[in-house]
Structures are given as C-alpha cells and as structure tokens.
Amino acid sequence: MVFAGRIPLPDAIIIWHFLHQSGTLTLYLSFPRFWAKIIWSNYKEEVVMHTYKEEIGSILQSLVELEPARVVELLETPPDPGMGDLAFPCYVLAQRWKQPPAAIAARLARDLSGKRGRFWEKAEARGPYLNFHLDAAAFGREVLEQISAAGERYGWSESGRGKTVVIDYSSPNIAKPFGIGHLRSTVIGHSLYLIFQALGYRCIGINHLGDWGTQFGKLIVAYEHWGNEAELLADPVNYLFELYVRFHRSAEEEPALEDEARAWFKRLEEGDPQAVDYWTRFRSLSLENYESIYDLLGIKFEYYHGESHYNDRLTGVIRLVREKGIAVESEGALIVDLEKYGLPPVMLQKKDGATLYLTRDLAAAIYRYETFHFDRALYVVGAEQKLHFQQLFKVLELLGFDWARNCVHVPFGLIHFKEGRMSTREGKIIFLEEVLQKAIKMAREIIEEKNPGLADKDAAARIVGLGAVRFGDLSNDRIKDVEFDWDKVLDFSGETAAYIQYAHARICSILRKAGGVKAEWAIGATALQAEEEKALIKTLALFPEKIEAAAESYRPSTIARYLIDVARDFNRFYHNCPVLNSDPALQQARLLLIDAVRLVLVNGMGLLGIESPEEM
RNA sequence: GCGCCUGUAGCUCAGGGGAUAGAGCAACGGAUUCCUAAUCCGUGUGCCGCAGGUUCGAAUCCUGCCAGGCGCACCA
Question: Is residue A46 a part of any domain in this protein?
C-alpha cells in the first residue's frame, strides 16, 4: 500500500522516483494491471496512465461498454502509420449493437470529434476501424523522460517481486565435450534467467550436471580396457571423448561391454572406492573444461547441483513412492504405471537396484521445492525429453505435491547437421569452443578491414563474435530445429547481433562527439516530427511489454526480434536525420532520442546475455 | 503402431483471430564533400503443406490427411 498524498493506493508498488531541481517529485507506481506516474507539485496530484493504450481504454470504456482492459486487448497497430497509430476494430460491437462496424466506427469518431487526450490528438473512422492519432510531441516527451529517468532499468518492472523462479539450464552430460548442442539450453536458459530477474523475480540458476549414470560406467570400462594416464592428463576432454566414442564402436560388436558398464555404474552407486576414484577424476577433469567455456560466455549459476548431488536422497524418494502406493514391481524393476493418464510407465529402479535419470530428477525437484519454495520451476531442456517431463510432473502430482503444476518444461528444437542429427556416441559433434573461437576470429578480421584504427580490437572482436553465436541461437523461436551451418554462424550482416551492436556503436560515437545528454532536453521532443523519429519513439515505448511477453512465453526470441526492429528504426533515422549537424534545439532532442535508443539496445541485448561495444 | 513438434517467397525465418501476409540472405540497380557503408533506398517473388469446419473475418482456432523431425521400461 502506497499513500499518494491523501489518496491511498492499494496494491501499488513504487518502481522508482525522481526529485527534480524544481522540487517536483515524480513517482512511478506499479499497479497489478498498469502503471502510473504521479507528479507532486504544490500538493497537486496528477495521475497519468503509462501508455496511450490505457488512456484510450479508459476513454472508450463508457462509449463502447467494455472494460478498459478488454479495449486494450483489442487495440491493434494499423498496417500503415499514415492511417493512425492505434486502431480499435469495431466488429466486436456489430452484433451487440446490430449495426455495421463501419457505422459504429463513424459514430464513435463523431462522439470523439474535437476531443483529445494527453497522448492522442484525434480519433477518426476508417472503414470498420476507429483510428487514434498520437500527439507525437506529448507522447515523445513522455517516452524520452521515462527512458532517461529509468536509465539502465528502463523496461524493468516489479511484477515478479517476492516470487522465486528456479531455472534448470545448460545441464550438460559431463564426461562428454561441450558441443554446440549444449549451447541452446545454456543461452536460452541464461536469457530467461536475466528476463525474469528484470521483472523482479528472485532467480535461482541451477546447472543440473549430468554427472551420474551409466555413461560413467562406460568411461570406466573404456579406460580400464584401453586407457592410459599420460594421454588422459595431456588432453583430458578430448581423450575422454575418444574413449567414449571407442566404447560405443566396440560395444556394437561386443555387447558384453554394456553389461560391464552397468556393473561399474552399480559399483559406483554402492560407493566402491575404485569406482568413486575414477568418477571423481573424470568429473573434475571435464568440469574444468566446462567452467572455462562458461567463463568465456559470462554465464554463472547459483548452484552446480549435478545428479550426483541427490545420491543420498534417492532411497528416501524410493521409500516415499512405495509409501504412497503408486509404484509396483514389474520384471524385477520398480515402476509407476501412468496408463490412466495416457502416459507410458516410468521406471524408478532397475532390476539390479540402480536408479535412473527420472528418480534423480524426482529427488532434485523435491529438494528444490524444500530449499527454495519456488513459485515456478523451469526446465530448459530439449523437446525430445518432453515425455520425460510429463512423466516427472505427473509422478510429483501423484505424490501429492501441489507445486507440481508450477513446474514447466521449456523445450527447444534439436540442432543438427544438414546430413542428420549430431551424435556424441558416433563422434559426430561440433565443439562449442571451436565455434566461439572461429566467430571471434572472423569478427576480428572484419574489424581489421572496416575499422583498422580501433584501439582494442580483441575486446570488440570477442563481444561481436560471441554475440553472433548467441544471437543466432536466440533470435529464432526456440521450439524449431536448427541446422548447423558455418556460413550462417559467421555471417555478420542483416538480422544479426552485429547489426544491433553496430547501431549501438554509431550512437556511442555521436554521443562521444556531442559530449553527453541531459534529461531536461525531453522538453524539446516537440521538435521530433520526422516520420523516422515518430516511428522510433513508438518502437522504444514497446520495450516493457516485449519483456513481459518474452517471460510469459519463455521466448527470448521476442526480445531479439524486437531489438532488430529498434536497430532498423534507428538506422533509418540515422540516414535521414542528422544529429550533430542540426539546430541546437533539435540537436538536443535528437541526442536524447538516440541516448534512449542506446539504453533500449543495451538493456535488451543484456537480457540476451550479449554485450554491446562502444566502438567496433 | 501410438504420442508430441514443425510445414509461410529460391534459401533462413517473423507474424499465432482483424485492414493490401512481412524481414533477412541471395540477384540486380542506386546512395559515402556529412555523425562508422557491419548501413540505407529501390526492383521481383507467395495455392501461408492439402482438404473440410467454426467465425462478420482464418496463415493464425478445430478435425482429418500428407511430408519431415523427435519420443515411446532397464541410457541421459
């Protein structure tokens, strides 16, 4: 509860405040459905809706007998800015009012003729639509003021305040090299982490390392048969990879090796010292490699809780499942029959007594809830594991955990070669490290060619190269499969991170020459009347809702696409509206505008885990 | 066999009930006395997989089919 003067505002949260030199205090408040600005000056309160959408929603409320929120939902953007900035389609009213939509639009336009709002200056009918035209000056000033005041927090909100979201991402099977296939979970998960954090959630990032299971039995068998210490220490990750591939090649002709591997894993689960010793070495050797890549990518986790972390909780889980009476013995194994729910049965314990992936996921989920009391738990894991998660969540539900419905599998498509899928077992894999290094090298070459005078080329190349790889993965809808193509990875033109970074660098260059900006210049926004300027301002205003949309659908691509739009709008502006070579008043307004663009680009790219260099 | 996902321009993909379906790449042409040409502008392209249905209105929702991918008990 916040008190605005004498008016109590329930459920409001102060987002930020700004004390002007004049003594005026500006408060931005967040309500459950909208947010508002309150300006205090001589005890007069003025409440202004944040967006013109909401303003229109309240204006139309009485005229069309619809809830403001419903009106806002129906509002859309006309195909051509010349038609207006926002359109209300009148079809919905046609049935209720028994009139053709065009007649309704005309009538509403008549009702509103001569009227204007704080952000719109006129409304007119065009066919079945009631089109609103923005007051570009008032709107532009408001947008620039807000962005300038919010700065590096522009777009952020408090909608997730007090809530916790646990995000399971990256989660590679170690003892295998970090392949390009691991990139997706890593960057999508990390981006979701940043997005939820921007919305005020407390985020817990967990790297659920695949550091347990039969693959370690396989490695031990391979090492016992063919391994040698010197080679292992010389190049641990590649050597383990070779052993892993060799195991699978040999196992095709000698299936007994698989039994040997299972036996070793069983020994590991029983705590056999020799097995544990092997496991510890293999685990730490490959983890070193993983950590170097996370460092390069700037990714951190709150916890590296691998599957092995839950070992001492597995018997408890098995006991719980038995107590609840949902498990049955079948062919010597312990399973849960899910036929009633249209799902195949799941196995929790093999006939040799060893546990499985799902058993450990069960233990992990329970542990996470007990530890973090999450409001939501996300699993950023490939779409091919959809069934696994349906089963996991169903078993949790059968165990009586009502928080099971807050567990969400965030699936993504497979990354594959033109020729077919990647396979670690067959050695058909691309090393992520190689991809990153090549991208950085290519970026470096382009910088050498385009900007030979740049001071720190290596730093810029690193940012641009890593950005290209990340953006390539984040800009398409995560659910779609992607084909790995070197040409595409190493392409820096068109809809890429470099396009956005380049726009950012251009802005920084202008700002350096101008020597800075001042928030007060927002008053001059009246001067921003060019089509390119109006389009840019409208696009900038969309940023907060894009972040919300990305979180709601768990799709960072929403933000990536949006940033392409921002950069494109900026580039058009750049080519048609000189900043430094314009009249002082216009120059100030334009400087503030491009500074706002800069903030949106930096904040938005930041949510994708991508940096923006000041020069490139 | 059963289940899930995907199918939009030559290629890669946006758009996920609303006005004439959009970008990038590739092709061709143009823009640099001026803030970085990794940019911008212009030219051409579509049975939105197919067939039904719901709706005032469907690329978008529903059903069936086709094609591709991915799953379906001792791997993770």
Answer: yes
Q: Is the ipTM of this complex over 0.90?
A: yes
Nucleotide nearest to A494 (CA to C1'): B24
Assess contact for A601 and A504: CB atoms under 8 A.
Answer: yes
Q: Which of A45-49, A215-219, A361-365, A439-443 has the lowest mean pLDDT?
A: A45-49
Residue A128 has what pLDDT?
92
CA–CA–CA angle A192, A197, A198 (5° rounding): 100
A90 and A41, same domain (yes or no) = no
Residue A365 lies inside a defined structural domain of this protein: no
CA of residue A381 to C1' of nucleotide B71, angstroms: 14
d(CA A201, CA A332): 45
Distance A363 CA to B41 C1' (A): 60
Query: Do residues A394 and A492 share a domain?
Result: no
Integer distance in angstroms from CA A435 to C1' B38? 20
Name the domain count of chain A: 4
Domain that holds residue A260: 169-311+373-421
Residue A172: name the closest of A152, A150, A157, A187 by CA: A187
Q: Are residues A413 and A487 in the same domain?
A: no
Q: Helices (DSSP H) in A373-480: which residue ranges?
A: 386-398, 432-450, 457-474
The CATH number linked to A566 is 1.10.730.10
Instruction: Report yes or no: A1 and A12 within 8 Å, Cβ to Cβ.
Output: yes
Among A44-48, A207-211, A574-578, where is mean pLDDT lowest? Answer: A44-48
pLDDT of residue A49: 33
